[in-house]
Amino acid sequence: WIHYAGTYSRADALAVLYINGKNVGEEAARLDTPIAGDWDQGARVGYNIDNNRPFAGLMDELNVWKRGLTEEEVNTIMNDGVDAFLAVEAHGKLATTWGKLKASK
What we know:
Layout: E1 4-9, E2 14-19, E3 22-28, H1 71-80, H2 94-103
Antiparallel strand pairs: 1-2, 2-3
């Protein structure tokens, strides 16, 4: 598998791309330019607005955080899983229970 993580920190004015836990690119954020004009309509994963570059493959996990993660946090999640990073134990919660039910079919 390949682990991709993209972070964006408005406070640091920086967007970073990590592949397999290594920083492979950074870009200064354009604070005066919104990410997208229709951001309030939702986001897509694996499907572009024009459908010219659809995602073809399997995606095992997707996490969306309220803030940009540090390189250390990205590596912790990559190596130990998201449960090692969460302040709340995920075991037995609806999302993990549903995931196990879906996987057993």
